[in-house]
Amino acid sequence: MARPSCVVHVWDLPAEKRPRFTKPVGVGALVRSPGDAAGLTHMGVHLRSVEPGLAGTNRHFHMVEEEWSYVLSGRGVVRIGPLRIDVWPGSFVAFPPGPRPHHFVAQGDTPLVFLEGGERRRGEDYGFYVDLGKRFEWGKLSDVTEPLPPEEADPSQCVQVDELPIREFQHDVDPYARRLMRRLDRPTGLKRQSVCWSRVEPSARSSAFHTHTQTDEWVYILAGRARARVGDDTFEVGPHDFIAHPAGSPAHQMQPSEPLIYLMGGERSDLDDVMIYPEGGVRRVRGKLEPL
Predict the structure, then answer these.
(1) DSSP string, 215-264
(2) How confident is the model at residue 164 (pLDDT cuts 50, 70, 90)?
(3) Is 85 helix (H, G, I), strand (E, B) or coil?
(4) N or C: which end of the chain has fewer CB within 10 A?
(5) What digits encode the pLDDT tens for the residues 99-146?
């Protein structure tokens, strides 16, 4: 059965060589873009592979947008301002806006591979490649003409997923929607991007069948298999599958056939987002349930 366009297998996607706009001196990566391929509209999610000895990007920071990265395989170091922190599979690093220039450097014998994402605030965001003396603004480069603020860093920006507290989640609309969760966003300083690690057993469902009116969601399968349901479509998903749920798209949920571990993310928005549960006959407005 053909799968809908909202799901892609990341390793089937074409890889683009980066950097795109600056000279690749000691910097190089292959980047796949599952968020674009699967239809996200408000944010970008990419898979970046960096060969040992290379940096994944030039050191940079954004003044408006939030960014984050989750290491899938390999080992390396993330440099944030004056800090250098070892990373390995399960490391999650958040990059709030501001003068915390950062990049990853791959070490060891295998590529450093990580999922990365962030906001898309076209017309608002700009930032700096601090070592190149360049300012960027949606693909436009110019020379830096103003003094840059002192570099900052906070070791709490980097956490290891297995060291975070785990909590049980029970949905109030669907009694079978149960999962174990670890929040990755809040401990690391993200305010508008939501990223969580989740585990769902075969006897449960990932969530109530639902959709959002104003915010994007996404899922990246780390381990296990499930039958995903998106609107009228049902299809199998497994490791390295990425599913996008853009704002206003059909309702969705997953039913595992074996223990399912995945990352899920989305937006925590100031917009008046409404969650709609079509089979429950209710919607959630500003945290409160009301009839459809």
Answers:
(1) --EEEEEEE--EEEEETTEEEEE-TTEEEEE-TTPPPEEEEESS-EEEEE
(2) very high
(3) strand
(4) N
(5) 999 999 999 999 999 999 999 999 999 999 999 999 999 879 999 998
287-290 contact pairs (CB < 8 A, 24+)? 289/172, 289/173
With b meaning 16 or more CB within 10 Å and e meaning fewer, what string describes 5-25?
ebbbbbeebeeeebbeebeee
Domains identified in the chain and CATH numbers? 7-161 (2.60.120.10), 163-291 (2.60.120.10)
Say if CB 132 and CB 58 are below 8 A apart: yes
Identify the residue whose tokens are 């799901």.
7
Q: pLDDT tens digits for 181-190? A: 999 999 999 9
